[in-house]
Write a structure and sequence with these properties.
By secondary structure, the protein is mainly alpha-helical. The chain contains 13 helices and no strands. The longest helix is centred in the N-terminal third of the chain and has 23 residues, at 35-57.
Length: 264
């Protein structure tokens, strides 16, 4: 990531934080601030976001050619079939269809919560990550899983991929039991674990994945911002899953995750 893109990303994030602060400022403080000040504050935050992302996504003709060449070059590093990824996606889809069409009550029965565990249903720490609230929820998670999980599986192998996915998901379930007083479902914690692991892989291979790294950073930031805005999204679960994914690669021998072209 060059300096221009990095500067744009920083400016955009600052703008997003400024804008989000509008919704978290206590009424006692916001009421004391004149409307004209709020107007300029909102305007500046929106301009920060617009120009920040413009600088981040804007590419010169030479950079566009480099980005296309990078995507073509990366294809040869991710040619192996990602059977573990396909299996996880299949399980999630089958469970979703079964719940929606046959046993809707299983959605609550398989969700993780303090009440569920106190009732003896410890298995919900695992089952919750294969249950989704609605179509939008599962489509987003499975799209990211197919896009990023298949890459990670090619880099670290099937067993380590499953280890990242399940460990990140289990960590999210345990966090719900420790700090949250609600039930949770969804593969988001596990999926963020995959993105966290791929972020470190991209940094290790930044000579081959410069533009991919930029896109992944934007995806992660956008996802975290959405999680912060919508309480039901479970920001804490996403964060712990992401951290688990990062730590998995960081504590491993980094040389093992240098990209090597697959043999045909």
């Amino acid at each position: 990531m060059n300096r221009r893109k990095l500067t744009g990303l920083v400016v955009a994030v600052v703008g997003l934080m400024m804008f989000l602060s509008i919704f978290t400022t206590p009424d006692s403080i916001s009421d004391a601030i004149p409307d004209s000040v709020w107007f300029w504050y909102v305007l500046v935050s929106v301009l920060f976001v617009i120009f920040g992302f413009a600088f981040f996504f804007f590419t010169l003709p030479g950079e566009q050619l480099d980005e296309v060449n990078e995507k073509i070059e990366l294809k040869k590093y991710f040619q192996k079939k990602s059977y573990a990824t396909y299996l996880i996606v299949a399980v999630n889809v089958i469970v979703f269809i079964a719940i929606e069409l046959i046993r809707p009550e299983l959605k609550n029965a398989l969700a993780v919560s303090r009440q569920a565990v106190s009732d003896g249903r410890w298995y919900t720490i695992l089952t919750y990550m294969f249950v989704h609230v609605n179509y939008q929820h599962i489509v987003f998670n499975m799209f990211v899983l197919l896009a990023e999980g298949s890459k990670l599986e090619n880099v670290v192998g099937k067993m380590k991929f499953l280890a990242v996915y399940l460990t990140a998901g289990l960590a999210g379930g345990l966090l719900v039991l420790l700090f949250d007083d609600y039930s949770a479902v969804g593969a988001s914690g596990a999926v963020y674990g995959i993105m966290g692991a791929m972020l470190v892989v991209a940094v290790i291979n930044k000579d081959k994945m410069k533009y991919y790294l930029s896109e992944l950073i934007v995806m992660i930031i956008a996802g975290m911002m959405e999680s912060a805005l919508i309480p039901q999204m479970g920001l804490s679960v996403h964060l712990i899953g992401f951290v688990v994914g990062v730590l998995f690669i960081v504590i491993s021998k980094k040389d093992k995750y240098r990209l090597e072209a697959s043999e045909q």
